[in-house]
Task: inverse folding
């Protein structure tokens, strides 16, 4: 990262002189004076939204974002082990809360940026209802690993709420994250899956299949919290992105992808 | 119909090399296949063993067709009654000597056993080695076990592909008598590939000389070797002779050859009347106009100069001496030839520094 | 170790043993064929066999996920024969592991067969052994070292397999939740104590297995002439 020109290590030819060399260096990095960079760790389910947010944000501010995608748990582990992220967009509120408790974030920067919507989905069209889960010939239902991903925990809550926990035991196949659960259904290996609404909406119109959105009463809201990490308190680009994320432009984009916003 | 010949009529082409041969070999005695490396000796043996397929031709064994491309017949190697010992004489490393010997013997089925395991181990002096692992054997011991192993498959013919080439001269000379003993004791026909003149001269009953995949001579060992085996760099001659007397006090024996009698160190295995072959090398023979006196060299043969020619551009001359009909090339310096005023037809004595007794 | 991880350990051992057994049956003739063939297709087959060495396991897992789905030819055939899907099943894991560990079985065997191969087989043939007889009585004993290396490496490699299982396994306890997945889950879940226990077991197992290979190879040097 070229935050500051490294003139200390620059070999200067006597004839050109120090001022000339400085000018030449400045000419090489014209954007460095105004724009800054920030690295955003993003939960995998939020990737498509982030892509659009990034484009809009970069064109509005001239800042440069680097996006790193992974499961919330994995990103959390990386962060506490010193990964160079500036902002963490989690897919839950538990890890940001834990980071806050561990004083890893800039105080007061934790907020809910999106509320995930769970849906029961299959790639074939038509109608589906919760009864599809009780069908005897059903072989596999994909969920995210409830130990690791809030969408997985939400899915088990819905299944429990429907009273199907015992019936589905042995039929539940667990992806490492919601992305893998989605892939299990999309490739036809599982007939049904509890996935993120945002994933289904990111498909082309003709591929969206059939879905049933469980009522919010059946599962704890999947609050997705964002935090500004402590190491980046002075990063202008990161601060600007936090502000952008709270603003109406960002909220409109986020809603468009199948999330609620606070 | 059983015959006592191995009929070969073969063509085999490789990249940059071709073998074409048509020859009936008698299934008796030792037949040497001789030639420089790359002449096709090993390929011929591998064709006979069945490890290679000819492009065209046939091989007829004693009792059956081993290969006939026209009739699309090909007897796989394991069905051919041929024992094969390759270079270095490898054994089955995971079996003891006894295991190696029985491996082939128990797979030969109903072939008549003219000799027993004990006969073979006794003839080759390997009875004390039976429990040894191949890795523990010396080079010479391994060769003898390999010969026994091949013999015990009761083959119609033994194919030997330079089996002793890895041995030094002393060990090689020690093992050759075993081969002759097998030949005598078990009447086992042997086809023997070699590029060593001395080995061939000492062992073979007949010879097939190959060059660039073609037969250049076949038949009597002495005549074929003298006509084809010697070259510019490695000149000499084979002389046929006969043991005529033993001198027990001096431990010498007399051998009568063309041009006189040579006295050589006695060998126990010889008896009076035995035919022998002597290998004389051109640069181990000197010439004299008079019978030698006061020299350590005792052996002198009488002959006359048949031809004198320059041996390249160097200081040497090549003098062709005729010993009552047998040619002997002698290498002398140009200076010596001038001193002696050597001329064609002149009577000379060929002084033999060393004579290798072979055969 | 917590009790819930015992099935994962047992499943992993079962998977490694089954995979190694199947690989022996498949890999031995394949390695022999590669060691002796003169066909021009040999480099193509060799490259295919070696692919799992260089491909990220997730690539293989992704293709298997597609190939195994119940609507695909392979997946539907398997479903109609066994009544079970290939993905999310032990059988699917075995097939995936067989493909993934194939080079670890084939390459040591091929090398061993090439070393002792042709000359030993010719010797056996000249001693009247038919090809299959010669294979079992000469080529296989001659390749004993190669077999030990191949078996142990295949076993150890399957023990530690992660990426492919992650892709096609579905993390079902007692069916597809192997030890490496369990470790991954523990780490992600900050359950470091459990992760430590399982990791130490896997490390110990792998070390013992490799130690066995090297000790064996020391004791039985190659037969050389």
Result:
């Amino acid at each position: 990262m070229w935050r500051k020109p490294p003139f200390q290590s620059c070999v200067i030819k006597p004839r050109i002189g120090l001022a000339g060399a400085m000018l030449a260096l400045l000419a090489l990095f014209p954007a460095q004076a105004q724009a800054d960079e920030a690295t955003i760790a993003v939960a995998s389910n939020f990737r498509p939204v982030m892509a659009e947010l990034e484009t809009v944000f970069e064109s509005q501010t001239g800042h440069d974002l680097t996006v790193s995608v992974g499961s919330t748990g994995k990103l959390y582990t990386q962060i506490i082990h010193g990964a160079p992220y500036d902002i963490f967009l989690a897919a839950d509120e538990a890890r940001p809360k834990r980071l806050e408790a561990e004083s890893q974030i800039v105080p007061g920067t934790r907020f809910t940026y999106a509320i995930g919507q769970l849906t029961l989905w299959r790639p074939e069209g038509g109608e589906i209802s919760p009864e599809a889960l009780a069908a005897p010939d059903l072989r596999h239902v994909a969920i995210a690993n409830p130990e690791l991903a809030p969408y997985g925990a939400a899915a088990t809550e819905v299944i429990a709420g429907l009273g199907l926990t015992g019936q589905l035991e042995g039929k539940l196949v667990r992806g490492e994250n919601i992305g893998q659960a989605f892939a299990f259904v999309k490739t036809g290996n599982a007939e049904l899956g509890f996935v993120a609404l945002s994933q289904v909406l990111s498909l082309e119109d003709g591929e969206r299949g059939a879905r049933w959105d469980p009522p919010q009463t059946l599962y704890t809201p999947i609050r997705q919290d964002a935090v500004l990490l402590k190491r980046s308190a002075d990063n202008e680009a990161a601060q600007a992105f936090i502000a952008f994320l709270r603003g109406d432009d960002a909220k409109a984009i986020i809603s468009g992808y199948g999330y609620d916003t606070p | 119909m059983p015959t006592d010949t191995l009929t070969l009529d073969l063509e085999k082409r490789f990249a940059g090399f071709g073998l074409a041969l048509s020859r009936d070999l008698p299934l008796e005695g030792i037949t040497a296949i001789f030639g420089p490396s790359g002449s096709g000796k090993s390929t011929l043996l591998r064709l006979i063993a069945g490890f290679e397929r000819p492009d065209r031709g046939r091989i007829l064994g004693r009792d059956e067709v081993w290969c006939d491309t026209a009739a699309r017949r090909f007897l796989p190697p394991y069905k051919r009654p041929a024992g094969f010992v390759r270079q270095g004489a490898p054994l089955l490393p995971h079996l003891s000597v006894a295991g190696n010997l029985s491996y082939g013997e128990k797979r030969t089925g109903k072939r008549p056993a003219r000799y027993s395991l004990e006969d073979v181990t006794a003839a080759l002096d390997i009875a004390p080695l039976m429990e040894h692992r191949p890795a523990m054997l010396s080079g010479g011991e391994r060769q003898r076990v390999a010969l026994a192993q091949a013999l015990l498959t009761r083959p119609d013919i033994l194919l030997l592909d330079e089996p002793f080439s890895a041995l030094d001269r002393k060990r090689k000379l020690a093992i050759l008598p075993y081969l002759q003993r097998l030949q005598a004791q078990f009447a086992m026909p042997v086809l023997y590939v070699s590029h060593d003149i001395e080995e061939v001269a000492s062992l073979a009953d007949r010879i097939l000389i190959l060059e660039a995949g073609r037969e250049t001579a076949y038949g009597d060992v002495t005549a074929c070797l003298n006509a084809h085996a010697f070259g510019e760099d490695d000149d000499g001659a084979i002389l046929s002779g006969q043991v005529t007397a033993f001198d027990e006090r001096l431990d010498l024996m007399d051998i009568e050859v063309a041009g006189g009698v040579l006295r050589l160190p006695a060998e126990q295995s010889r008896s009076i009347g035995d035919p022998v072959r002597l290998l004389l090398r051109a640069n181990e023979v000197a010439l004299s106009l008079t019978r030698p006196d006061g020299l350590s060299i005792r052996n002198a043969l009488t002959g006359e100069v048949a031809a004198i020619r320059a041996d390249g551009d160097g200081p040497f001359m090549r003098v062709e001496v005729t010993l009552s009909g047998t040619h002997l090339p002698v290498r002398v310096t140009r200076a010596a030839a001038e001193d002696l005023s050597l001329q064609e037809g002149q009577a000379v004595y060929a002084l033999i520094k060393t004579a290798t007794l072979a055969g | 170790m917590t009790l819930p991880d015992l099935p994962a350990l047992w499943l992993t051992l079962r998977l490694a043993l089954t995979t190694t057994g199947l690989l022996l049956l498949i890999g031995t003739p394949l390695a022999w064929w590669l060691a002796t063939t003169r066909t021009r297709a040999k480099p193509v087959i060799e490259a295919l066999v070696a692919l799992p060495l260089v491909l990220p396991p997730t690539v293989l897992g992704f293709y298997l996920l597609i190939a195994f789905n119940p609507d695909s030819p392979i997946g539907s055939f398997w479903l109609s024969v066994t009544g079970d899907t290939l993905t999310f099943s032990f059988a699917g894991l075995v097939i995936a592991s067989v493909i993934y560990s194939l080079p670890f079985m084939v390459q040591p065997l091929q090398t061993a067969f090439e070393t002792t191969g042709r000359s030993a087989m010719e010797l056996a043939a000249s001693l009247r052994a038919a090809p299959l007889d010669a294979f079992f009585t000469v080529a296989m004993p001659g390749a004993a070292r190669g077999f030990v290396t191949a078996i142990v490496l295949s076993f150890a490699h399957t023990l530690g397999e992660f990426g492919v299982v992650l892709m096609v396994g579905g993390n079902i306890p007692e069916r597809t939740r192997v030890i490496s997945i369990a470790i991954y889950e523990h780490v992600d879940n900050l359950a470091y104590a459990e992760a430590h226990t399982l990791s130490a077991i896997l490390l110990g197992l792998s070390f013992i297995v490799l130690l066995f290979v090297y000790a064996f190879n020391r004791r039985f040097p190659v037969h050389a002439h």
Notes: The domain at 118-212 of chain A is CATH 3.40.190.10 (D-Maltodextrin-Binding Protein; domain 2). The two ends of chain A are 35 Å apart (CA to CA). Chain A has two domains: 34-115+222-256, 118-212. Chains A and B do not touch (no CB pair under 8 Å).
